[in-house]
Amino acid sequence: MTFEALQQNRQYILLECISGSRAYNLQVPTSDTDIKGVFILPQQELYGLTYTPQVANQSNDEVYFEIKRFLELLEKNNPNILELLSTSAGNQLCRHPLMDLIKPADFLSRLCMETFAGFANTQMKKAKGLNKKINQSYPAERKSVFEFCYVIVGGQSVPLRDWLNEKQLQQEDCGLSRIDHFRDVYALYHAAQFDMETTFKGIFSGADANDVQLSAVPKGQGPLAIMQFNKDGYTVYCKDFAAYHEWVALRNDARYNHNKELGADYDSKHMMHTFRLLTMAEEIALYKEVRVHRHDRDFLLRIRNGEFSYDTLVEMATQKLHHMQQLYAASDLPEHPDPELAEALLRRIRDEFYVPKKY
After folding, report:
1. Which of 27, 36, 356, 358 is buried deepest, with most CB atoms within 10 A?
2. Predicted structure pTM score
3. Buried/exposed code over 147-160 (b: 16+ C-beta within 10 A; e: otherwise)
């Protein structure tokens, strides 16, 4: 089964809903329309060696879960799946009568405290990650190994590049040898210290090198200098450099510019969803239902519009987490859903879909 095949054989779709911001009542003029749904594999494909747990379009804003995968995630109290099952009728595009067998209340449990809080924590981390990246700036070209090498002069460290310039030496004419028991510390030599036939590889191979390189050094001469390569610092820099440029390439420019215009140094949309998830978890403990349509739209959009500082939101979220824990401690929700319910429902839905009863 593929996304394209499912769209051409829509008789296998059991549930199809508008999801995301429009389902939450949090849409703004620039909001996309996301679709989520549930499908059942054709019977012959189910008997084969492969199993398709879910399909999605190329942009991943239309996602469909096979009924087995859907029930597995539902049993784990996955927030996305509970939201899909609880989507209001006005946002349901199609619904097979068999979906009436699956009732949200039969699956709600204390696991919701962990799963919704976990999703909320992920949103906070994403917002914090953007907080870090907004305040970072990396040029298009990555720094070379050269920038992380230092020599010892008069008891102090001096950048290798400055030292070579002062000595009017080229790194290509230098050679390194390892110093035992000193991690990333090398003895540095220059060809001029030896006879005319001595040549070295250089300190590193070129701008794209990821490490220094060693040369065969003749005996009989002491090093011209002791050099240290800050390899750990270079490794961290390269990871941050790659992550930053990956973020630039993949970021939603509209959201990025929105946050910049607000003067918010965090992703306000991620923080909005943090509070949506925490409040929904509270409502599950209080009312034993998943309220997808948000009546706290005004407050949530204030967060999205950057009206609060990041630190204030973190403090507010911490308080909500504490309150949520108190609610679940007092709740009579089961520890987890009935482990036999999902399997019983799956068997019944497959039986009735593949072999419809005749009346």
Report:
1. 36
2. 0.65
3. ebbbbeeeeeeeeb
Cα dihedral: 346, 347, 348, 350 (round 10): 80
What's the Cα-to-Cα distance from 287 to each of 108, 168, 253, 292, 331, rounded to whole Å? Answer: 11, 77, 39, 13, 10
- Provide the CB-side half-sphere exposure for 44 (13 A, CA): 0
Would you tell me how many other CB atoms lie within 10 Å of the CB of residue 93? 12
* Interatomic CA distance for residues 288 and 293, integer angstroms: 15
Tens of pLDDT along the chain (359 residues)?
A: 999 999 999 999 999 999 999 999 999 888 889 999 999 999 999 988 889 999 999 988 999 999 999 999 999 999 999 999 999 999 999 999 999 999 999 999 999 999 998 888 877 776 665 444 555 567 878 899 999 999 999 889 999 999 999 999 999 999 999 999 999 999 999 999 998 888 999 999 988 889 999 999 998 899 999 999 999 999 989 988 887 777 677 655 555 555 555 445 577 888 899 999 999 999 999 999 999 999 999 999 999 988 888 889 989 998 998 999 999 999 999 999 998 999 999 999 999 999 876 54
What is the rounded CA–CA span in Å between residue 228 and residue 244?
27
CA 88 to centroid of chain Cα atoms = 28
The SS3 of residue 66 is: strand
In this structure, how many other beta carbons lie within 10 angstroms of the beta carbon of residue 272? 24
**CB of 229 closer than 8 Å to CB of 209:** no
Asked whether 96 and 113 are in contact (CB, 8 A), the reply is no
- 24-56 core/surface letters (b: 16 or more CB in 10 A; e: else): bbbbeeeeeebbbbbbbbeeeebeeeeebebbe
Residues pairing with 149 in the sheet? 229
Q: What is the DSSP letter of 159?
A: E
Cα 337 from Cα 124, distance rounded (Å): 28
Single out the residue of 322, 324, 321, 319 nearest to residue 285, CA to CA. 324
